[in-house]
UniProtKB/TrEMBL annotation:
Pfam families: VIT1. This is VIT family protein. Keywords: Membrane, Transmembrane, Transmembrane helix. One of its GO terms (cellular component) is endomembrane system. InterPro entries: Ccc1_fam. One of its GO terms (molecular function) is manganese ion transmembrane transporter activity. One of its GO terms (biological process) is intracellular manganese ion homeostasis. It comes from the Bacteria. The chain crosses the membrane at residues 21-42, 48-69, 148-168, 174-197, 209-230. It is found in: Endomembrane system.
Amino acid sequence: MSRLHTENHLISRIGWLRAAVLGANDGIVSTASLIVGVAAANAAASNVLVAGIAGLVAGAMSMAAGEYVSVSSQSDTERADLDRERRELATQPSFERQELADIYVKRGVEPKLALQIADQLMAKDALGAHARDELGISEMTTARPIQAALASAAAFSVGAAMPLAMVLVSPAAWLAATVSVASLLFLAVLGAIGAKAGGANVLRATVRVTFWGALAMALTASIGAVVGTAI
């Protein structure tokens, strides 16, 4: 007797995981870089904090808007493809049946059986079958603009709040160093969590995100120091 079991595939996490990791990573890197750059220009701690808060708000809104526009474009494309497929199913059902069967044949199914499968799937949900097997659109991967925008804004805010918190607890003389070190630790943890959740190599992901974060902060600190000296 076979035992039924539920499989949890990592691909089901790709939508929210991408938005969450990208948002939090950007929140840490951009806000920490902004703070370090302003601090390197010899600004007062209060000014650094204001700049960091402004960066958090602006960054969260930018992430939300960018993600919404990007995913909306994907959603529009999916909707247009589905509308075209719906028309073709209404006007060319035989052609669409054969087209679906050919997809299964290419996957290794016998031609006769492929036609039977196509008939059965189209009898139940013709548009759903073509959306999934011809267009690659499914409930798991379909675009959700509002969800993606909110997730990105929230993740960015959480990430940005971490270096901002360091401004509040750090001595003014060590502000830039404290924010830099703490932010790199935050990035390393984020990279490890994202890799673990997505089933990727933890060490590679951690090194990658930490390296780029360190590079961003080093560049902004250099610019801040140059500007602060010049002014």
